[in-house]
Amino acid sequence: MLPTTIILRALKGDPALIQAKLRVLLAEASTPSRVIIDAESPPLQRFYLFEDDALSAAAKAYRIDVEMWAETLFAPLNAKGERFSLEYIWNKSSLVERLAQAPEAGQLILFCLEASLPSRYRRAIEQSQSPVLVLGENRWHHPPNLVVGIDPFHKSDRPADIDAKVVRTAMTLSKRLKGQLTLVHSCYTPSFMIKYRAMIQSTHQRVIHDFLAKHHLQRLNWHLLLGEPADTLSDYCRTHQSDLLVMGLVARGLIKKRITGSTTDQLMSERACDLYLIP
């Protein structure tokens, strides 16, 4: 189990749901998890206001509320020994600084209740060298429904082994969660090539068959989705009530600059389910 850093927005979310997801995901954790409580609040950064005793007292009360909320949230999870260490950030710049201290060989769990990720969380994901779990308020099924999305056609702008790595990670997680796993791939035919649609779809099916055979995954359930990748993945996850979508985090261009792929970026903008992004 990878060392884990968790980011939680202060005073947000259903505590029971947060606890339930962490219990499932970190049941086999062998090292304590680091929890960063994101308590950034603009009034706390306006020090010129602190000359007013009432405002200063409100800022102090806010800090006390945040710390009590976090300690109450993690107390049941720490009941069998210290598994979660808490730390707090009170301004935007601290988040990037704290994440820079995270172990490279770890994973990042980000609880985000907003439909679209705030820009500071996007930056944290883009800069991460580790797998990232983006979790929201949707409750998982029992057993959970996992979907793994691959794209073997984009070998030129992705690490060569990214799809195999993503599938292996999804299979390991599905086995640990006793979940149900389905592999999907999206095939998009531009309007100007519509007369070649059947041939294009046949080629995509053949490439997926070859991928599954190469990695001895023939028994894995899979579907070919037709349309724009971000749209078809979102629609599939909603229609099939998926709990977690596993996919690659990055694309790599000729300049070798680390960037999020366009499909991943769209899926982060409007999440149909929780995401597990593999670099």
Automatic annotation (TrEMBL):
Keyword DNA-binding: no
SUPFAM superfamilies, per database record: Adenine nucleotide alpha hydrolases-like (SSF52402)
The organism's place on the tree of life at top rank: Bacteria
Gene Ontology CC: cytoplasm
Pfam family, one: Usp
Keywords, alphabetical: Cytoplasm
Compartment list: Cytoplasm
UniProt record similarity statement: Belongs to the universal stress protein A family.
Name the record gives this protein: UspA domain protein
Organism of provenance: Ferrimonas balearica (strain DSM 9799 / CCM 4581 / KCTC 23876 / PAT)
Source organism phylogeny: Bacteria, Pseudomonadati, Pseudomonadota, Gammaproteobacteria, Alteromonadales
